[in-house]
Specification:
This protein is α/β, with parallel strands linked by helices. The protein has a single domain, classed as 3-Layer(aba) Sandwich (Rossmann fold). 37% of the residues lie in helices and 27% in strands. The longest helix has 18 residues. It starts with a strand and ends in an 8-residue tail after the last helix.
């Protein structure tokens, strides 16, 4: 399998002389096509910073990041804008849906911005809505549906253009346990059945147990890695064990 993401010696430093904070310190990682990778660590470990530099929201201080073979660090703003639209899919904790648009209109936004023809848009929205079980709410507005349905809508928007990499930032953070489980199962199915490549930042061990591999970060550095081998229940326990060794209140990480 080829690497969808390849990050080498990535650094991110905030502040100026005399007051420097290294948020990321020489991080290197690869995510192969079809992987479902979780990023975990204590609060302040650098998880969000790592997501931000990979998603092109922020720029690293040093190192290199290639996504689908493209060096995103050397792109200008126009190139980055096109790259985000074509190659990346985003799922945020707070959904980031537009209340003035219907569920369907929110989902097709990436295709509309890329000027995809109407017939193709209809085919793709029906396909993705069926995959995520939201066909019956396409004509509703975000304020008319549940949190779980909003997040499925956000997931549909993230995958409709078949991005090379889906980036999920605490996607279950605003959901109840039932909706969280349903969304995680959807992401797992997308990974298994559609070979979607997913990188998910989460503090939740239960959410992380749906991944195939977990990278743990501490103090801006990679701490260790877990690869799922047995059942999800066994993987969940191994995740908890690592979180305990990372320190802090494990209850805040579950």
């Amino acid at each position: 399998m080829t690497n969808v993401l390849s990050a080498k010696n990535v650094k991110k430093v905030y502040g100026s002389r005399g007051n420097i904070y290294p948020a990321l310190d020489d991080i290197s990682l690869n995510i192969k096509e079809g992987e479902f990778v979780g990023i975990m660590g204590p609060s302040g470990a650098g998880k969000t910073t790592l997501l931000n530099v990979i998603s092109t929201i922020d720029s690293p201080t040093g190192g290199s990041i290639h996504i689908d073979g493209d060096n995103i660090i050397k792109m200008n703003e126009d190139q980055l804008s096109s790259f985000r639209r074509d190659k990346l899919g985003f799922i945020f904790q707070d959904f980031n849906l537009l209340d003035t648009l219907t569920v369907k209109e929110n989902i097709v936004l990436p295709l509309a911005l890329s000027r995809v023809n109407t017939h193709e848009i209809e085919e793709k929205v029906n396909e993705v809505a069926n995959t995520l079980g939201i066909t019956d709410i396409l004509s509703k507005y975000p304020y008319e549906v549940s949190g779980g349905q909003k997040q499925r809508t956000a997931a549909a928007r993230a995958i409709i253009h078949h991005p090379k990499l889906i980036l999920a930032d605490e996607p279950t953070g605003a959901l109840d346990s039932k909706s969280s489980t349903e969304l995680l199962q959807c992401l797992s199915d997308l990974n298994e059945n559609n070979k979607a490549t997913i990188m998910m930042v989460t503090h939740d061990a239960f959410a992380a147990s749906y991944c195939k591999r977990i990278l743990f970060i501490k103090d801006g550095r990679l701490f260790t890695e877990l690869v799922r081998g047995g059942s999800r229940k066994e993987f969940f326990q191994k995740i908890l064990d690592v979180l305990k060794t990372l320190g802090g209140d494990t209850n805040d990480l579950i």
